[in-house]
Amino acid sequence: MTDPNLTHLYFLLDRSGSMQSIRSDTEGGFDAFMAEQRTQPGSCRVTLAQFDDRYEEVYRDVPVADVPPLSLQPRGTTALLDSVGRLVGDAGARLAALPEHERPGVVIVGIMTDGLENASRELTHAQVKAMVQRQTHEFSWQFLYLGADQDAIEVGTSLGVAADRSLTYSRGRVDAVMAATSRNVGRARAAVAGGATPQQAAASLAFDAEQRRAAAD
């Protein structure tokens, strides 16, 4: 069986040119997120990828205690579909290659962007949605979609992300969206450490009304 005390957190972060106005807020919010995860029970490993019209894996399978400060250098356009597909495909292949007892019991994929798709050349919405839904239904991966100044529920569901795991935030509220995400991820990890199944713990990842208001104010 998979390791129930191990969480692998995958984070796909938009670094397109429009992120420049919230670059420092995003760096600070992400670093605070990682700092809080270091205090949670159980083991956690992190993979970070950034994208504009190109996809870059910044680091892979790093213990949360060793995650470096985020350095974001905005540029380019927004190839969201190709980037989500690349991350999901790469992560799935790597996990499948591991012995089952080394695979994480909890897999959480966070997608954070301030822009809409405008540069993908390889994948369609339907293809990405099918990929995300397959990993969710067959392997119990959990997906979060964080979208600035857009209808994140509409965009997230078009990618296969559940509506209650999609959060709209204002550009000035990066701290609130990162705090909400960190809290929910921490609660899910704590639930698993306390004996809950990953499927039971997944309910902790849903954003509540208070978190939605704080992110939108």
UniProtKB/TrEMBL annotation:
It comes from the Bacteria. It comes from Terracoccus luteus. InterPro entries: vWFA_dom_sf. This is von Willebrand factor type A domain-containing protein.
